[in-house]
Design a protein that fits this description.
This protein is mainly α. Helix content is about 45%, strand content about 10%. The chain has helices spanning about 20-25, 40-45, 50-65, 100-120, 135-155, 210-230, 240-250, 255-260, 265-280, 290-295, 300-320, 355-360, 360-370, 375, 380-395, and strands spanning about 75-80, 95-100, 165-170, 185, 185-190, 190, 195, 200-205.
């Protein structure tokens, strides 16, 4: 590693292994956890945690101090898991290694200590994004300089970006966009019209059709899998806990960011819930009413749940619970209206002609926020706000 003239943050303290900490980790092991190449079962480690912890803590500390591991702990059963892209390329597979439970326990300790230190000093990031408003050749050149700086950083720290997995996406609404090519480490970066970032599919036109298609397909596969697992016999009682908890995460992950606004997208998402209701009642007859089933199950429309989530996120942003620069975007209302009050808990609406911006988080949620009663927007306690909002949206 390169030596720095000055350290911007304090060095990480030495890791000290405690018998108590090792004992707690062993006692909390799942008895049926898969064993590694050493064939030492989790049940033995769990049931005899008190007896094993002192010796294991000594081995852990010795391994950290010397930078070495027992030979058995270095071995692992590796399986390739496909991520995305071309299935014929090895780089599109993630290696998953099944190592010994003792080795995983030491790994857990090291990971916790390192992450605590990195989080304290804002070091950690597992991806990198550069962005800039490009209005002409000078802006494009400046963005290329940013990439050159990134290249210098990776060289200095003896790292290497995989340029095959680095992309350029231009968010534009013009007929003749810039054709400037960007490079990283001598390689021209590929251009793409959509890219998945933190589990959300973002497209160059900032529409959510591609993302909604993807998550509804995933939810449909999950429902199909559940149906194949269950008995085809008619159920006498509904099973309201099975479908929502296993499928909704597919449909609601980061929903505050991408909340669907076109009727086609809303209908496409609600269709999954209607299919889920049929699964719960095990009733797929054409004459049956999914709407009646949903009413009987007391399920809220997914659109209402997404709206509630957006309002909760805005509340958190306003009160500084999230790292969102809300104060630089939100402006208190100044003209006379039924929403104005002396405490300025309502916000000026953001004017825009583009639907992709009009229905994005802040412009859209501000409109919904300004329609809430004052006693909700002025709530100072987060739990009180959530409860009052929940009741208000359903009355």
């Amino acid at each position: 590693m390169p030596s720095m003239d000055s350290e911007p943050s304090p060095a990480m303290p030495e890791i000290k292994i405690s018998i108590k900490g090792v004992h707690e980790l062993l006692a909390n092991l799942k008895p049926n956890k898969a064993t590694g190449p050493d064939d030492l079962p989790a049940r033995i480690l769990k049931e005899y945690a008190q007896e094993i912890a002192p010796a294991l803590a000594c081995i852990f500390q010795r391994s950290i101090d010397t930078g070495s591991l027992p030979e058995d702990w270095r071995r692992g059963n590796i399986s390739p898991i496909f991520k995305k892209g071309d299935r014929t390329k090895a780089s599109n597979y993630r290696p998953v290694s099944l190592t010994s439970i003792c080795s995983k326990t030491l790994e857990h300790i090291l990971h916790s200590c390192i992450m605590d230190h990195l989080d304290q000093h804002d070091f950690f990031a597992d991806d990198c994004i550069l962005y800039r408003t490009v209005g002409g050749p000078e802006d494009a050149e400046q963005l290329q300089q940013d990439l050159n700086t990134l290249r210098a950083w990776e060289t200095r720290w003896q790292m290497a970006f995989n340029t095959e997995k680095c992309f350029v996406m231009k968010v534009i609404h013009v007929k003749n966009p810039s054709t400037h090519k960007y490079m990283l480490g001598g390689s021209i970066l590929q251009e793409t019209s959509n890219h998945t970032y933190l589990g959300v599919d973002i497209t160059s036109d900032l529409k959510w059709n591609h993302h909604v298609d993807k998550i509804t397909a995933s939810a449909n596969r999950s429902l199909g899998f559940l149906r194949r697992l269950t008995s085809p016999s008619v159920q006498e009682e509904p099973r309201p806990g099975l479908s929502p908890h296993s499928v909704r995460p597919h449909l609601e992950y980061s929903a505050a960011v991408w909340d669907a606004y076109t009727q086609d997208q809303i209908t496409q998402l609600e269709a999954i819930q209607r299919r889920g209701a049929r699964f719960v009642f095990n009733d797929y007859q054409y004459t049956s009413s999914p709407t009646s089933m949903i009413t009987a199950l007391k399920w809220d429309p997914l659109s209402l749940r997404r709206k509630e989530r957006r309002l909760n996120v805005l509340y958190d942003a306003v009160h500084g619970h999230l790292s969102i620069p809300a104060r630089t975007i939100l402006r208190p209302t100044t003209r006379s209206s039924r929403f104005v009050n002396i405490n300025n808990t309502y916000h000026r609406q953001i004017s825009t002609k583009k639907d992709c911006y009009k229905f994005s988080f802040f412009p859209r949620t501000i409109v919904d926020w300004n329609q809430l009663p004052f006693h909700i927007t002025s709530a100072t306690d987060q739990e009180v706000f959530k409860q009052q909002l929940h009741e208000h949206l359903r009355n």
